[in-house]
Amino acid sequence: MKMLVTGSSGLIGSEVVSHFDAMGWELHGIDNNMRADFFGSGGDTRWNQRRLSESCRNFSHHELDIRDRTEVLQILEELRPDVIVHTAAQPSHDLAASRPFDDFDVNAVGTLNLLEATRRHVPDAVFVHMSTNKVYGDAPNELPLKELETRWEYAREEDFDGIREDFRIDQSKHSIFGASKVAGDIMVQEYGRYFGLRSCCLRGGCLTGPHHSGVELHGFLSYLVKINVNEGLYRVFGYLGKQVRDNIHSHDVAAFIERFIEAPRCGEVYNLGGGRGNSCSILEAFERSEALTGKKMHYEYLDQNREGDHICYISNLSKMKEHYPGWEITKSLDDIFEEIVRAWRDDRS
Predict the structure, then answer these.
(1) Is 72 helix (H, G, I), strand (E, B) or coil?
(2) What CATH number does the domain containing 102 carry?
(3) Which tens digit of pLDDT belongs to each residue from 84-106?
(4) Pairing relation of β-strands 145-147 and 152-154?
(5) 318 is in which domain, residue-wise?
């Protein structure tokens, strides 16, 4: 079996490459390290590209920009993969506002380029798209909340398990990033429903793990732990630092992708996160990191939240588990923190 992974040097892309390489697949990765352009040296992923080249048995790297329609069409025609896992993206709220053309061209146009190339050259392939929970915009903030000592919490019992896939995605503020990801998300669904492409959108919460090049503008837990390990200063943007995220390890993401490939559907949507068990606020993340590193978390509070940011977001995993009962979260929040702390203590350059 042959797989093409876009954004192969990033967190999820590299995890997918490693996961399926261990299964004996032929892996081809597309990445042009645009993360370094977006975020500077802190976002550079060449170290991860080198790690894959050294550790994987059957991996080939392709230096390619998914905005280049001609090259995307050509590589799909040449490789004819059985599966395309699309993880490449411009992932930052804040950066999108200052570079809207780049953001839309990567997230929306790049996704369309890949979809059409798949339809033309490998219409029977499986197409997995890493979307985001930001397609819901700030509409989840309309749910009744209650303030606890260290976090915001859903006030109603019916919301306890989190956001379901039928939650609305329009008539809310998304950020420019969220809007471009909506465009890609809907297009993936449409190629599934209109053309019959076997595809899904995975609306990720906080995707995390030790191979994340976390920066302030993207990569919540990775960046937070990095700052703590290096005794830097972390900036908290609004909501009293009590904003809640559910965190899923990249290993569990790759494991779900494996399940979907085994029994694909057309134009499906799943909220992919750690669920309630892996949720934490920024303040709670500070405590966990301090307990592991023995170092005090230094931070400053800015009384201005990021545009379109969620106050409390937990992914409801019931649909995923109903469709794929063999899949479950295997990496706890403790596991995630321990692995990230170890990674930042090591020299990854």
Answers:
(1) helix
(2) 3.40.50.720
(3) 999 999 988 888 999 999 999 99
(4) antiparallel
(5) 2-345
Q: Quote the pTM value.
A: 0.95
53, 50, 47: which is closest to 27 by C-alpha? 53
Look at the block and give the residue holding tokens 């915009």.
137
Phi and psi based region of residue 308 (left: phi greater than 0; alpha: psi -120 to 50; beta: remaining):
left
Cα 291 to Cα 65, 228, 285: the distances in Å are 41, 11, 10
CA distance 347 to 313: 33
For residues 84 and 114, the answer to whether their CB atoms sit within 8 Å is yes
Residue 298 pairs in a beta bridge with: 233
Is the alpha carbon torsion for 201, 205, 211, 214 positive or negative? positive
CA 48/CA 209 separation, integer angstroms: 13
Whole-angstrom distance between the N-terminal and C-terminal Cα of the chain? 32
Alpha-carbon separation of residue 239 from 94, 118, 151, 223 (angstroms): 17, 42, 9, 19
Please name the residues in contact with 167: beta carbons below 8 A apart, sequence gap of 6 or more: 136, 139, 140
Q: With beta carbons less than 8 A apart as the criterion, state whether 102 and 58 touch.
A: no
CB of 79 closer than 8 Å to CB of 5: no
Total of domains in the chain: 1
pLDDT tens per residue across span 144-157? 999 999 999 999 99
The two tokens of residue 51 are: 């790690």
